[in-house]
Every structure is written in C-alpha cells, then in structure tokens.
Amino acid sequence: MKLKAKNQITNFLFMVPALILFCFIVVYPFIKGVRISLTDWDGFSTTYNFVGLKNFFKILKDPSIKGPIQNSLFFTIVTVIIDNVAGLGVAFAFRKNKRSNRIFRTCVFMPFVLSLVLTGFIWKYIYSDVFYGIFGIKSLLGNKNTVMWGICIMAFWRDIGYSMLIYLAGLQAIPDTYYEAAKIDGANHWKMFSSITLPLLAPAFTVNVTLFLGWGLKVFDYVMAATNGGPGRTSETFAMYVYNYTFPYNRAGYGQAAAILMMVFIFIISGIVSTLLRRREIDM
C-alpha cells in the first residue's frame, strides 16, 4: 500500500506543472469570462454594471442570431460529411505502402499544415483572381447564395489530409487475415468493405466525426480571413457573432455571454455524438 501511495503521489507531482498551466490558461480566463458575461462591460472602461442574466436573455431573443447559427450548422454538416467520405475514399484508394502512394498522401496532407487564416487568404485570391481570370467564374465568396459553399470548399481542401491520415491508420491496423478468410468464404469486395472494413474503422469514425463537428461549430478563421462575414453578414458564423459583439460593437459582456452559450452548445452536441459513436464501437 505504501508503494502504491508513493507511486500515486509521484504521478500527481508530475501532473502539477500541467495542471497549473491549464488553470492559468483555461480555468482562470473561463471564470473571469463568466463574471464579465453578467455585466454590461464595453471592453474598455474601468467601470461596469452587474446585469445578471440579462445578456443571455437578450441573445435568445435576438432575431439576428438565426443567420450565424444556420451558417455554423450548414458549414458543420457539409464539412463533416464531405471530409469524412472523401478522407475515407482517399485513404482506402492509397492505403498500400508504395512509393507513389506515399508521395500522393504527403501532397494531400500538406495543406493541413497551413494556418486557417492563410488558407482563407489563399482561397480568397484563387476565387477572385485565378478562377475569374482563367475561367471567367465569379468568386463564390461574392454571392450570398454561394459564399458558404465557397468557405466549405476551402475547408475541405485543407482538412481532407487530416481525415485521410486517421482513416489510413485505422485501415493499416486491420489484419489482412480477415480479408483472406472472407475471400475463402466467397465474399466480394463490397461485402468485405461493409462487413469488415467499416465496423473495424468505428474508432476512426469517432475521432474524425467528433473533431470535425467541434471544428465546424466554432469556425471563425476561414470566414474572418476570406469574407469578414460578408456579403451583408450572409457568411457570419456564431463565432464571428461573438467576435463582433465583443470587439467592433464594444459590448464585451454581451459577447462573452454569447461565447459561453456557444461553448455549452458545442460541449453538449459533441458529447452526445461522441457517446453514441463510442457505444457503436462497444457493440461491434
């Protein structure tokens, strides 16, 4: 028992620096943010009034929040579906460890190392100068009916490499003996894919779907860099709604309340989806 207690104390001491850093970077700002959300602080003045839950009720009654929520949900649904389907397809097509496949996988993954802001600026230039200059196609970002599709495309270009990498790791972890046994039993390629590959890729699905869901619901950088919420706020997302009220509109208390609501929403949705997907892993 003494040895076990000593090991537990040692392990805890190793965790202390990380816990201190976590409290300083995450816990303290969160607590301070909750306090700010209960005030009418403008972000600059040294005095502010306590308003309680007034900011939260205003957000729920604000008709202009409908657009940002719809844009965030649209972006999330599209990117979760397309990135996972395309990522799985690319990983499956180039899963064999050949030189040409390794080169192709590297090329697909390379955009993921770029920052989100840089990706937004790159595609803003491509839409406005390259597509229009060569093909005569007007920028998708300048039309309120296509702007969100344009943002989804740039996210797909950058993030498909990450999705491919997760699925590739899952595919390479599946023993070849399963497929050999299925061939002996007369199973075709579709049967092997649906009965062996997909079930054994359940952990990879859980990782990718949960991550892309969280990234999509809090998308900010793409929109900020490429459109700044335009044209006419038609591409404004929930995260941009929080930013606009916190900084340009000088309503930090209101913006902080919106940020807390967004965090709670993402936490609940991601938790539910992750739980359902992990339950499917257990049932396999």
From TrEMBL:
GO terms for biological process: transmembrane transport. The keyword Lipid metabolism does not apply. The lineage of its organism: Bacteria, Bacillati, Bacillota, Clostridia, Lachnospirales. Its main location: membrane. Residues 69-273 form the ABC transmembrane type-1 domain. Belongs to the binding-protein-dependent transport system permease family. This is Lactose transport system permease protein LacF. Gene3D superfamilies: MetI-like.
